[in-house]
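Lab meeting notes turned into a lecture example. A postdoc, R.K., suggested we walk through two folding results consecutively so the class can see how the record format repeats. The first protein's sequence and C-alpha cells come next.
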Amino acid sequence: MKKLFKKAVPIVLLGTLLAGCSFGGSKEAKVPETSTLKVMYYDEGQFFQDYGMLFTALFPNIEVQVVSTQEIGRNNGEDPDFDAEKAKKEFIEKEKPDLIMMDINEYQKAAEEGRLHDLEAQMTKDKFNTEGIVPGMIDYMKELGGGKVYALPTAVNSQVMYFNKELFTKHNIEFPTDKMSWNDVIQLAKRFPTEGKPEERVYGLKVGYSGDLNELSTMVAGSEGLTYVNGKTKKMTIDTPGWETSVQTALDAIKSKALYVQDPNNNGMSGGDSYEDYLMRDPFISGRLAMTIDSSYYINQIEQAADYIKKEGVVVKDWDMVTVPVSAQLPDESSNAYYSNIFGIAKDSPNVDAAWKFISYISSEDYSRVKAKTPNYNGFPIHTKYVKDEEGRNLAAFYKLKPSKVNNYSDYEKLPPQFNQMFYGIMQEEFKSIQDGKKEIKEGLALLQVKGDELLAQAPMTDEEIQKEMEEKQKKEAEAAAGGAATEEATEESTTESGTVIK
C-alpha cells in the first residue's frame, strides 16, 4: 500500500488535464477537513493516470492511498481449488478500502450481500445531476442493485458495426441502420458482389478476428442471450434449438461467400512486412469491406492508416457506424455492451463523504469533458455530450444499446481451470468440422455438450497438469494426422502400381 501522488508522474500530463477542466464550483465541493481515502484498484500507477492525478489536484485536502489488487491470485495456477471471489472478499476485509472498484457481476453480488453504501442519499443531498448521462445507465445500475444505486460506472464500452459509405453508394445499396437484426444485416451483406480474387474482391461483412463459424455463431447466439455453459450449475447449455438456429444462420451466411473469412493458412501475415502492408491487409481499411464489427480502438486504427498512408484513395475515407446487430426479441440490448470501472463505497467506510466526493467527480460532466480529450481505449465518458467526433459520425452507436441482462461470463471463474483453458480449442475444432461440411450442426453441438460436461465434471487441475494434458492431446492428434497421411500415400502407391490413373 502506497500513497498515490508521486513526483515521477509527468507534470506535463497534469497540466494538459487541468487545462481541459473547469474549476467552477470546486470550492463548494471541497471536503472541509483533511481526509485519507483508500482506493482499491488493479494498479497504483494506472489509477494515478486514470483518476488520481486530476482528483488530488482539485481536492488537495484528500490524501489518496491505493491498495493494488495485483497480488490477488497471482499464483492461483498452483492451487486448483483457488476461489477468485473468495480471495477478493478476503482482500477487501484485510485492506478495508473506502472505494471498491468492481465489474458488473461483482457489483450485483456486493449489492445483494449488503456490502456497499447506498449512494442515493448523497445523490439527493448534493443534487447530483444525472441529466446527460448515458440513457438507461442509472436505471440499469438500480435494477441490478435491487432498486437502489450502490455504485456508478465511469466509462461505457461496446462494439459497433463500421460501414463503408462509399461502397454502399457505389453498389446502390441503402446504408445500415441502428438496431438491425442479424438476418437483415446478413441479407444486406449478400447484396454485394462475390466475384473476383479473394485478395482483391469486395466483401459484405466481417465478424471477429477471423470471421469463422465459431466467432460468428457465438456472436449471433450471444445476441439472443444464449451461453454455451451455465457458470452456476456447471452444466453445458450448447446443445439446444437456439444454438442450432444461431449456427445455421452463421453457416448459411458464410456459405453465401458474402462474408470475409480469413485464410487460416496465412493468418493474415502474407503480403509484405512493412507497417503499410500490415494496415492494408485489413479489408475494411483498404476499402474492400462493406461492414465490420469492432471496438472503439478501431477508430484509432483507421485514423492511423489515413495518417500513415498518403496515397490518395487507398484508405477508407467515407465511413460511419451503427449499433451491432441485435435480436428481434431483445432489440435494445447487446452482449457486446458493458459499463466499466464501476466504483462503490464500502458499507463500513468511515470516509463516506470523501469517497462520495471522488465518485461524484469522476461521474461528473467536468470529468467527462477531460476524459473525452484522451484516447478512448478504455471506453467513452458516461456523459454523452462528449461522445462525438469532428466528422459528425454516429458515435451514439457505442452507448445506444444497454448491456445484456444475461452475462455470458457470469460465474465462469468458478468453473474448473481446465474448462476455461481447453474448451475453446475443442469448440474451435468442432465448428471447423461443421464449416468444412464434415459434420452436421446437431452432431457437432451434441459432441460439444458431452465434451464440455466431461471437463466440468473433472476435479480442478493445476496449470502444469493442464499443460501436460494439452501437450498429450496435441501429440495424439499429430500422430493421427501422420498416420492418415501415410495411409493415403500407401493407397496412392498401390493404386498407381495397379495401373489406375491418379488425378
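The second example is placed directly after the first for contrast:
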Amino acid sequence: MIRRLSLRVRLTLWYSGLVAAVLGGFGAFWYWSVRQELYRSLERSLEQVVRSLAFILERSAEQSRQPLRPPHRARLSVHRGELFPFERPLREFVGPLPSDTLESPVWSAIYQYVLLNPRSYTIQIALPDGRIVWRSENLLGDSLPVVSGLEVGESRSLQASVQGELQRLRVYRTRLAQIAVGYSVQEIEAVLQRLAFVLLWAVPAVLLVSVVGGWFLARASLRPVEIIRQTAETITAHNLSLRIPEPPTNDELAQLARTLNQMIARLETSFQQVRQFSADVSHELRTPLTILLGELELALRSRKSPEEYEAVLSSVLEEVLRLHRIVERLLELTRAESGQLVLEHEPVDLTALVQEIAQDIEVLAHERGLRISLDAAPEVRIFGDALRLRQAVLNVVDNALKYTPSGGQIQLRVRSEGHEAIIEVSDTGIGIPPEEQPRVFERFYRVEKSRARLTGSDGAGLGLAIVRWIVEAHGGRIELESTPGRGTCVRFRFPRQQDQL
C-alpha cells in the first residue's frame, strides 16, 4: 500500500515517523531522567537531615552526659485535649546545641529550619528498644514506622503512608536512637504530572508542525526532480540537443542532472554516428552499385564482341570485389565492437613481426620507386594476437605506400621506451592537414576524396578504424604526427610483456 503512494507522501510519512519516534523517546527519557533526579535529590536531602540529627544527638549527649529519655509528661492523655507529650520541641530532650556547633552557620540553619520548626519534613526519634521519644508536630498524632534489625550506622530507605499520603522515609540507626525522616512525594508527583501534561501537549504539537514542515520540505526538495522529469519527457530523438537545467549547487540532484546531461550527450553523439554511418554506408554502396547498373545496362543495349563483354565483366567483377571488401570490413568491425571477435593472447615478438612486414612490402615499394628502412631493437615482446597486429601494421604501411610519391622513403621502427613497446611507421608522403587529423581513425572517413582519385585508392575509410580497434584491444594507443607536404608518422604504443604478466 505504501509503495503506491507518491515519493513526497512517503518522505513525509518517513520523516514524521522518525520525528515521532525521536520526540517520544526524548519525552520518555526526559520524564524518566527528571523523575530519577528528583528522587535522588530527595534521597540526598533525607540522608543529610538524618545525618545532621544523628550528629546533633551525639554531640548533645556528650555535653549532657545523659542518655536520651522520654519526657516527664508521658502520662498525659490525648483524649483530654492536652498536647501530645511527643509534640514538645526536641531541645527539651537533647538540651541546647554545643557552642562550637552554633558557631557553624550550616548547623545553625539546620537547627533553626529543620529541627526546631519542621514544615515539610516529618521527623521521629525512637530509642533502640522501639519507644518513641520525639516526633515533629506535623505528624499530628501519627507515627513513622520503626524498623527493626538495623545495625548502628546503617540506614535504610522505604515508603510508607503517613496521614493518608505517601512519604519517602530515611531511617538511620545510631548508638543512642533510631532516627526516621520522611518527606511527602506528593510534590514530586505533582511536578511529574505537570511535566507529563506538558509533554502530552507539546509532543503532538511539535509533531504536527514537523509533519507540515516535512511536507513542504519534501515538496521543495523534490521540485528539481520534477523539473528533471518534465524536461526528460520532452527530449526525443529529434531534439537531443536539449539539456536538463542543472541546479546551482553541488548536491546529489545537481550531480544527477549532470549525469543525465552527459548520458543525453552520449546519446546525441551515438545518434549522429548512426546517421553518419547510414549515410556513409549508403554512399559507399551506392557508387559501386551505380557503376554495376550502368555497365550492365550498357552491355544489354547492343550486341558487343566477346572482348567487349569480357571488359564489361572485368569491370563488374572489380566493383563486386569492392562491395565484398566493404561488407567484409563492416562485418569485421561490427563483430569487433560488439565483442564477438576474440583476440589471441600469446607472446608476440614485435621485432620479428615488423621485419617480416618490411620484407613483404619491399617488392611493392621498389615498384613504386620507394625506399624501405628498418630500425628494430632486438626482442621487443608483448602479449597479443600476432595476426591482428600484423593486419594493423600492414594497413598503416599500405596507406604510406599509397600516399608517398616516387622517390620517397618509408621507415619502420621498433623500440622499447620505459614500460612500453613502440612501433613507428613514418613516410615522406603528402601528409594530412591538421584539421583532418583527429578524424582519420573514424569509420568511413577519408581525407580529401580527391587524394583517393590522385593515388588511385578505392578504400572505403574502414582500414584505420579497424587499426584503432586492434591497438586499443591490446591495451595500447595510437599517436599521429603529420605535416602536409613533409610526411606522416603513426606510432603504436603497447604495454610490454613483463608489464602484462
